[in-house]
Amino acid sequence: MDLLKDLLAAVGVIINGLPQGILALSFGFAAMPTAVAFIIGAVGSGVMGLAAPISFQAETITLAGTMGSNLKERLSMIFYGGLIMALIGLFGMLQAIVEFIGPVITNRFICNSGGYRTGVPGCSRDSEEAS
């Protein structure tokens, strides 16, 4: 049963990662360095026994692709964003942050991060819903 769960999780990560990879290519990010980074990350996760999937972050790709005017700016945005998240993870603060903000804000963030880009009703910037 665990093998089936692992297989479904792997398929989910692939399905999630493909459109984000295409988004990255549309902003001019190179495919080969990204693939090498994913392989290094997958090997590192396997060695450490981590179950967390590795995926693109569409928000980071979009921010770097639209706000970064050159390669140095884009890489700096991605590097510093990753550094901040690594520090949050190393100090074990992620769970505390999620518990602090609560389920309403967490769910709204999840809705907005994907729903806004796809035009899902209730997830748009103009939504009057109070969460």
Which characteristics define this entry?
131 residues; disordered C terminus; 75% helix; globular; transmembrane; mainly alpha; transmembrane helix
How would you describe this structure to a colleague?
By secondary structure, the chain is mostly helical. The chain has two domains: 90 residues, no CATH class; 40 residues, no CATH class. 75% of the residues lie in helices and 0% in strands. It is built from five helices and no strands. Helix 3 runs antiparallel to helix 4. It is globular. Keywords: Membrane, Transmembrane, Transmembrane helix.
Summarize the structure in short.
Keywords: Membrane, Transmembrane, Transmembrane helix. By secondary structure, the protein is mainly α. The protein is built from five helices and no strands.
Set down the secondary structure blueprint:
Blueprint lengths: L1 H25 L4 H18 L9 H10 L3 H20 L3 H25 L13
Helix pairs in contact: 3-4
Proportion of residues in extended strands: under 5%
Annotation field: number of helices: 5
Global shape: globular
Compute the gyration radius: what is it? 17 Å
Structural class: mainly alpha
Uncertain segments: 127-131
Mean pLDDT value: 76
Number of strands: 0
Sheet having the most strands: none
N-to-C order of helices and strands = HHHHH
**Proportion of helical residues:** over 70%
The total domain count is: 2
**N→C terminal distance:** 37 Å
Keywords: Membrane, Transmembrane, Transmembrane helix
Transmembrane segments: 7-29, 35-56, 77-98
